[in-house]
Design goal:
Chain lengths: 400, 72
C-alpha cells in the first residue's frame, strides 16, 4: 500500500534511543522500526514524562529545600552524597540561574552522569546558560564513554557558539557522525552540519570508505536528513567515490530496507552523479536489489522520485527495470500512473512500458483509459505518446 | 503469556490511547516486550530515586524525608 516515505534510518535510531530509555538491549525491540520514528519518539517521551510524573512531588519539594542552601554547599553535598539520578530530577525543578550556580561547581564527570539521567527538554534554559567550556568538558566525558545518544539529546538546545566550541574540541569526525545519527530534530541537524567547516564535513562523509569503523548507516543518515542543497553537495561527494564504495552503499540499502532514505538522496544528486548511480552494474547483476528498490518505491509512494531517474539509465538498465517492472501488480501500476499524472512523467513511464510484454501494455492502456474518462485530452495525448513508443494499438482497442 | 492491550499501555503512560495508534502495527509479542520493559523501567527509576534519597540523607532520615516530601 502506498504511504508517506518513512525513514528507516530515523526509526532505527529511535529504537536505539527507546532501548536506552527502557534499559534494554536494542535487539530486544527489533522490528519496532516499522512503527516509524515519530511514533517511537512519542512513546519514548511518554515514558520519560511518566517517570518524571511518578516522583514529581518529591523532586519539587527537594528542589524547594535546596533553593535556600548556598550553591557551594549544595555542590559539595552533590559530589559526596547525591546520586546523579536524584540530582537530574532536582536540577530541572530549580530556576535555571540557580541551577547554573550549582552546576558550575561540579566536575564534568559528575555532570556527564547527571546528563545520562536528565530529560533535556526540562533543562533547556539551563543548557542554554551553560558556558561553552563546561559543555565541552561534559561532551568529551560522554564521548569517552561512547554515550552518543545522550550527547545527541543536548545538541537541539545548544547555542551556535557552544556547538562550534564542541565541534572544535572533538577532533575525530567519527564521534560527530555518531552523535548526529541520533539527533532528534532534522532541521537542527541541517544547521549543525552547516556550522561544520567544509573540510571536516568532507572528512565526515568520506568515513563511508572506512570499513573498520562501520559508519555507513550513520553517514547515510546525515546525507538523507539534511536539506536539498546539502543533500546534493554531500551526496555528490559520496557518489564520486569508486564503484566498490557505491556497491557497498547499495547493498546495505537493500539489506536494511533503506530505499525510502536513499532514493530522495539519489534524486537530489547532480545529473552526472545520478547517471553514475542509476547505472551501477550491481543493480543489473543482482535482481533482488532492483526488485527491493521497486517494491520500496511502491510501498513508500516514491514513484514520483523514481520515474525521473529512468531517462538517465542506459539501455540495458532500462530493459532490466522493465523486466522487473512487468512483475508489478495492477494496483501498483495504477500508483505508478498516478505519479506520472502528478509529475508529468508519462514519457519515462511509456519508454519503460514499451519494453514490457503485450498484456502489461494493455493494462497500462486500460489504466490510461480511466484517466480518459475524466480528461479526454489527456487520453488523446497519451494515445499519441503510446503510438510513438509502439503500443498505441492497445489504446485504440480500449477506446473502441 | 498474558496479552497487553494498547489501552493498558497508554494508561500506564498516562496518555490517551489514540496517541499510541501507530503501535497497532506491532505484533503481540512486541507489545508484550515493550510493556514489560516500560513497567520495569518506571519501577526501576522509582526504586533508584528512593535509594538515592536514602543514600543521600542516611536511611532513617531519608525515609522520614520521603514521607514528608511525598506524602501521597
Amino acid at each position: 500500500m502506498a504511504g508517506a516515505p518513512v525513514s528507516g534510518l530515523a526509526a532505527r535510531a529511535q529504537v536505539a534511543k527507546l532501548a536506552r530509555t527502557l534499559g534494554v538491549p536494542p535487539a530486544s525491540l527489533a522490528g519496532l522500526e516499522q512503527i516509524g520514528a515519530k511514533a517511537l519518539t512519542t512513546y519514548r517521551t511518554a515514558v520519560l514524562d511518566a517517570a518524571y510524573a511518578g516522583a514529581r512531588t518529591l523532586s519539587l519539594r527537594l528542589a524547594r529545600l535546596i533553593y535556600w542552601l548556598p550553591a557551594w554547599l549544595t555542590a559539595a553535598v552533590c559530589r559526596r552524597r547525591i546520586a546523579p539520578l536524584l540530582a537530574a530530577r532536582v536540577v530541572t525543578e530549580l530556576p535555571a540561574r540557580r541551577a547554573l550556580a550549582i552546576v558550575l561547581r561540579l566536575p564534568p564527570a559528575y555532570l556527564a552522569d547527571v546528563c545520562q539521567c536528565i530529560d533535556p527538554r526540562r533543562a533547556r534554559d539551563l543548557i542554554r546558560l551553560m558556558p561553552p567550556v563546561r559543555v565541552v568538558g561534559i561532551a568529551q566525558a560522554l564521548i569517552t564513554r561512547g554515550d552518543y545518544i545522550v550527547a545527541s539529546q543536548f545538541v537541539d538546545y545548544l547555542g551556535d557558539d557552544t556547538l562550534r566550541a564542541v565541534t572544535e574540541a572533538v577532533s575525530d569526525e567519527a564521534h560527530l557522525v555518531r552523535i548526529a545519527y541520533y539527533m532528534e530534530s532534522k532541521r537542527r541537524l541541517d544547521h549543525v552540519v552547516r556550522i561544520l567547516p567544509r573540510e571536516r564535513l568532507r572528512k565526515a562523509i568520506l568515513l563511508v570508505l572506512d570499513e573498520e569503523r562501520d559508519l555507513l548507516l550513520e553517514v547515510m543518515s546525515i546525507v538523507a536528513h539534511v536539506s536539498y542543497a546539502l543533500k546534493r553537495e554531500l551526496g555528490d561527494l559520496a557518489a564520486a567515490q569508486d564503484q566498490q564504495v557505491l556497491n557497498n552503499i547499495v547493498r546495505a540499502t537493500e539489506a536494511q530496507h533503506l530505499w525510502p532514505d536513499l532514493l530522495p538522496v539519489v534524486a537530489a544528486l547532480s545529473v552526472d552523479s545520478r547517471q553514475k548511480v542509476v547505472n551501477l552494474p550491481i543493480l543489473r547483476a543482482d535482481p533482488t536489489i532492483l526488485r527491493g528498490l521497486l517494491a520500496a518505491a511502491d510501498a513508500h509512494d516514491l514513484w514520483g522520485t523514481v520515474l525521473p531517474l529512468l531517462p538517465l539509465m542506459q539501455e540495458n538498465m532500462r530493459w532490466k527495470v522493465a523486466e522487473l517492472g512487468a512483475e508489478l501488480s495492477r494496483p501498483a501500476m495504477e500508483r505508478v500512473a498516478a505519479a506520472a499524472v502528478q509529475g508529468e512523467h508519462w514519457r519515462p513511464l511509456f519508454d519503460l512500458v514499451a519494453r514490457m510484454d503485450a498484456p502489461k501494455q494493455r493494462e497500462v492502456a486500460a489504466i490510461a483509459a480511466q484517466y480518459g474518462a475524466v480528461d479526454e485530452r489527456l487520453y488523446a495525448r497519451l494515445a499519441k505518446l503510446a503510438t510513438d513508443y509502439g503500443f498505441g494499438d492497445y489504446f485504440d482497442a480500449v477506446a473502441a | 503469556m498474558a496479552t497487553v492491550s494498547l489501552d493498558e499501555l497508554a494508561a500506564r503512560l498516562q496518555r490517551p490511547p489514540e496517541s499510541l495508534v501507530e503501535f497497532q502495527a506491532a505484533s503481540r509479542a512486541q507489545l508484550q516486550v515493550l510493556s514489560a520493559a516500560t513497567n520495569a523501567a518506571l519501577l526501576r527509576e522509582e526504586c533508584e530515586l528512593r535509594s538515592a534519597l536514602n543514600c543521600a540523607l542516611g536511611k532513617p532520615l531519608g525515609w522520614l524525608l520521603q514521607k514528608w516530601l511525598a506524602p501521597q
